Batch of 2 targets.
Target 1
Amino acid sequence: MSSWRRLRMRIQRALYLPAGADREMDDEIRFHLAEETRLQSERGLSAAEAATAARRAFGSIALAKENTRAVWVSTTLEQLVQDLRIGCRILTKAPAVSATAVILIALVIGGNTTVFSIAHGIISKPAPGVHATGLTTLSWVADDGDIETHAEHRVFAHFQEQSTALQIAAADFQRVTLTHDNGSYAARIGIVSPNYFETLDVRFVKGRSFTPDEAERGTSGLVVVIGHHVWQNSFAGIHNIVGQAVAVNGQLATVVGVVDREFRGAWLAEMADLWVPLVGEFRPWLQPNRSGVAAAMFGRRAPGVSLSSAQSELTTIWAQLQRAHPELDQKVRVRLVPYSATAGGNSIISTQGNRMLAIFSVVTVLTIAIVCANVANLLIARAVVRQREMALRQSLGASRARIVRALLAEGLVLSVVAWIVACLFAWIVSRTVVRLLVPAAQSEMVTPDLTPDWTVVGYALVLALLCTIAVTLGPALRTWRQQLLPFLKVGEQSVVQARSTLSRGLVVLQLAFSVLLLTTAGLAQRSLSLQDSADVGFNTRDLLLATVNTSASADDAKGNRALVEALRERLARLPGVGGASYIPGVGRLSNRALFPVRRDRAAEPVITVDRHVASDYFSTLGVPFIAGHDFRPHDTRTRRGVIVTRQVAEDLWPGEAAIGKVLIAGPDARAVEAEVVGVVRDAFFAGRSNDTRPRYVFFASAERPGPPGETTFYIRHSGSQGALGPAVAKAFREVDARVAIASLRSLESQIAVDAAPLWMLATLLTLFAGGSLLIAAIGQYAVVAFDGRRRIREFGVRIALGASSRQLVSSVISESFRLTALGLVIGFALSVAVGTVLARVLYGVTPTDPATFASVFVLLAGASLLASYLPARRAASTDPMVVLRTE
Amino acid sequence: MVVDCLLPMARTRPKSDLLQGTLDLLILRTLQWGPQHGHGIGVALRSSSEEVLNVDHGSLYPALHRLERQGWVDAEWKLSDNNQRAKYYRITAAGRRQLALERTRWSRLSAAIAKVLGPA
């Protein structure tokens, strides 16, 4: 035979082995047996005897074939495929159990993966449009642990010049007014070093980035790079966008480039619409709230430079700079951290992110352990049924390792299916969460990219493998230790195993945990809905909020005040408007800095929330004065005037008239005297909160006019909001066309936006509670089912002795309910303990709210009843004949 | 059922190289006289050992296929003496070299064992 033929045969064998080679082997053995039979009959045996003798001489045909096949095939591979096939077959044989197991594992992996995906998206991913390889963020760490992102411009210039390890770029951001042919708009601007885009590796769709000399040119010949959305929305995507003129806070500038669609800045908080070059000289028109040029820094490491060597270089440069300039803060150290969209600074995410991840991973491992224990219980309950089969297989020569491998394959099939489901789950949920987040974050930051990437899919895979091992371990150990003889000697039902204290303990733990989560979620939901329906003290409907930016129209605080007053008067004259007032700032309601006021310097402070408001604020909202009057434009008093809510007056001067009294306002160091000019009725000016008694003090914004910037107008109207919006915009334009409207919304929607994070938390909590209830119920089901299997002979005997099936069901359920009762007691005890901590943030409900506790009791008892009833029914339907026949 | 002492005792796992190699050696030696099918080899082994080595026929085939895989024998489907399709095995050049090698090793081993056991 030529070597070519041999090669071909070998390939054929490798490819067609299962079918072709088997047939060939059959032919060969058949021939052998025929030859041997012929030989034996020649020796004088009858045909039947000869055939038997031939078979005897040959030995086991199956064994010979198996061994011969093993010569050609890599056995382990074949066995693996076989194992997996068996795994699939076993799972499809008991679809209910398998589906339950898959759903459980998918739930736990999916839930954890979703949270991981979100955490990963917020904590470690780069901002959209940024290529993050080798990027690091610079932080400034003070002795007391405070972390700053910004440093002076000269520090940046020095670092940029000296560092060889890092290409350093800097950025600051600011709210401005952007004016172009179509009007004025409130915008956010990035003030960035010329190498900013290059360092972040941002793509340009039009034009170019800044050149170094543009950074030195200053205000004359100002250039801007605009975001893709500005190009599309404000310039309708015109072809010749490069070279167009715009005005930033009234300063003329030329567009030189448009960045990629995704890019909105290096940090999530940046959310820039356009960018101008960072210069060394201070530009008050651009940054009215600052006194000098400062910026946050980040750098791209040169190839082959590690984070630690870059760190040591920067430390050296910083130390030299500190020595040369004693006026620089000597206590601050520079620290490099890996770049992400939220890295640097002392935001909760950047300082606590890793700790949160650590806590999260502990929680992950715990939940996975609990769920896997449940699934393992389910599988063990089934494994008991298969004990005899396993024993039989072992006695026929299957090695223990082989059987454990089959179990492992079964677990693997389970986990892989669950993994796929979990990835889909995580993908859908994290996209939903983004949609939930967007209204809450509304223009405050770039929406992080939370959809799972390959890291997340890999994470889910690791979890799935963990689950495989955890789920298989129990049944595998059982098989490993299993004594063969008892199972072979007696029937399937006769071997009684000790009941598992561990799995019962787990069930009680899960039930208790579910109770805790359910009561907490219930309290949160009730508290929030009570808060939403509570009276805030004034009519929140028919109130329009309009935030404008006046940076482009006013030069200083005085000019700004005059402009804003003019705007207010114009608004108040609009048809259908009942009143208009304003407060400085963007009008977020949830910022509640605590502000102490005292009766005199020695007295205990009353903690209040302070607000700066224009005149007519109270009449616009519809909050009546109990005593005194509103701020008057041309007051001749020397002291500052203050208006307090009734509760504050009551706290400071119980039983006395408050008008004309003087209070000490503010923290110790900056406390000032103020004379009470009015007392208003109690109201929740910042939306409903959990304080039962709101305490507010108000100062006249006219007394301390701020620099040009944002102002939020409150407009009380009688007609529809839709008709009013354009009229308000027109009124602003008529007074000054450069006034940019940042947002128009109703007070109701502002309140809803402010409350959104709380609702989201409550919803998440409810989801978790529901999931935990499901897990606990399935856990209990598994334990009761296992028990039922174990005691099937006992049930058979009882039925044979005359027990009715109802008696059996109730006996199983009552036994199972002992677990439920224990779980409820522990859970309620925990809830009360946690509730006392929660009491401070709850509104209108006590931590032991009877309605909440009663509904949790009903819910859990119901779920538990169902979980015990199903296996109890099965136990009761035992056929005594079948069970006892095996004796 | 007679289990030959020279054969692997259990199923898949080769117990020892010596025992397995011995069966290979015997097959190769048998094939030196000319191409033969599996049954023929079994019969030849039985008769040439004067019925002492009663090889379990089933275990011949894994050994034959192993030899084929190692390239020491070739296989070909031919018609047998009584006109039936049979798979004939033939020793290759490499097989002959292997046989020579195994024979030396075997005689050295048996001589050594004989020395240890000594004259009875």
Note: Residues 525 and 762 of chain A are 6 Å apart (CA to CA).
Target 2
Amino acid sequence: MKRILGLALGILTAIGGFLDIGDIVTNGVVGSRFGLSLGWVVVLGVIGICIFAHMSGKVAAVSGRATFEIIRERLGPRLAVANLGASFFINLMTVTAEIGGIALALQLASSVTYLAWVPLAALAAWLVVWRVKFDLLENVTGLLGLTLIVFAVALFLLGPNWSELGAQVLQHGALAQEKLSTYLYYAVALFGAAMTPYEVFFFSSGAVEEGWTAKDLGQSRINVLVGFPLGGVLSLAIAGCAAVVLLPEAITVTSLSQVALPVAAAGGKIALAVVIVGFVAATFGATLETTLSGGYTLAQFFGWSWGKFRRPVHAARFHLTMIICLLIGIGVMMTGVDPVQVTEFSVVFSAIALPLTYLPILIVANDPEYMGQHVNGRGLSAVGLVYLVIILIVSLAAIPLMIITGAGQ
Amino acid sequence: MILSELLGRAAYVDSHRVGWVIDVRLRPEGRDPDRPMAVLRVHGLIVSPHSKSSTLGYERSTVRSPGPIAALQRWRHRETFLVPWADVAGIETDRIRLRPDHRRYSPELIISASSPPEAKDFEHR
Amino acid sequence: MRGSYPPDPGAQHPMLDARLHLLDRQVIDVDGEPVTAVDDVELSGPPDPRHLSPDDPAPAVTGLLSGVTLGTRIFGGRSPRSRLHSIDWRAVSDVGVTIVLHIRAGQLEIGWTERWVRDRIIAKIPGGRHDPE
């Protein structure tokens, strides 16, 4: 049992990263408009985040230094501050959206307007961040978030034409009614969603929270290799359900309830109830992950004391940062802005900022002074470099695509 | 004097600029049993003829990985040299003057492998 | 260009570069608690910086500095020394991946913001003083 629970960090990181409110809806949108023809992007993104998280987990375990501490050391002062500004702002946007996401999921369950749920959701998230031990937090949220497996179950129950789905995956191009630029825009969005920097901030800081040392490198590897691919599979399942049920009817997903439609069609009320539990758990997990990441980012950059393993009085500025983030989140959400749109923007912006976070980790993972005998082997180094190029291309293409397609219209 | 007064300053010989100070080399002096950490004295200045700042430190170590990045950084900082402190003539508000007969040494820094990461115990509980 | 300029024979610690090894590094106190990141380094001043004499001893590191430097880092320029807090070099016990002190953060002036936030805000919220459960 302990072994299974030992995977909770990887699973929670993946859920918060791939299956937050923005990604759930984006996967639904992609499935309903493009079928599974963007599936290869999810695979590419999963491999990328596995490499990235593996390196940063390794660095955290061997040297005890979490990602943002390294960013400050390795980039020059201007670049490091630019990274801090971008990362923190994106994080804040995401926290805001995730609080909205929890509220939307609860609205699905209760028919009470989501605005009423916003302050409660934020308060619940804060209480967990304030008082609950890190491993309890990750175990419970991770396990509950796994109920999203119901999408994979539903996909089977729907009895789709598998060869047709397979053909979509292999078809590396937009379907007839969509433009190539829109296709590429969603490719960037899906890639950005898979490789969001806050996943790495959270994973590496979580590694320090759990006290991983060089002996736990195997544990780190398993977490990465189980958690992120699982997240990828669930993403594909959500898109697949939408592809099977909504695409043929030309229904385009615009809301959370539409994403749940295929599951209700496949498994009735019970399945729908499970899905809602999954939505609430995933968005709650994402809120925790992004709130903690906001605290980790700022505290690690300035050298403050941080960590949930410390009493709040011994990590005062860290906790204050998170309280302020949640308060800003409540404030912005109450103005009625659409949480899904906010995450879609934040995903694209994180794709733009990604190179600044990825590069220092790639460098340090190759530095024998930090890693001793655990430096990257030539294979990992080479693949790491390939991904650096991919990340740079995505980063440069993001804004032009966003402008050309009007953010995916 | 603080470090940022030296870093990024242009280095001149008479009125001819030879580069910019990108780092300050420090050497530990002896070890007093009463002091846990040795006194660090300025050994020399690292001057780069082509670039005002250094990131990542590739020009001074033997780390070659990842290949293209190390190669790029070494190219940007080619011909970087170490000037012994004794050959620095003066520090002014906008420049650092080197003696006309200043010596130039290789900037390579031998990183000691004497304390591998496994020996570090970052006990935080 | 000549070969390497050798350090003192018998030196027990390898040579360091200030920007590479001291600047922007995390400072940790004797209990393992993070203190700050290094924003600048204080060096003993030569008597007349404009005219250095080979007879004067070389400057030595006297302290690590930290303070509000975000603005100067983005836009350039330098924070006046008076705005930076100092950690005396004699408090340092080791320099490696992090800089380790042999005293507690609480004994340092630099910890005042953390102490202020702790006393004024965090300690006032119920549960702040307890271990998480």
Note: The first strand of chain C starts at residue 16 and ends at 17.
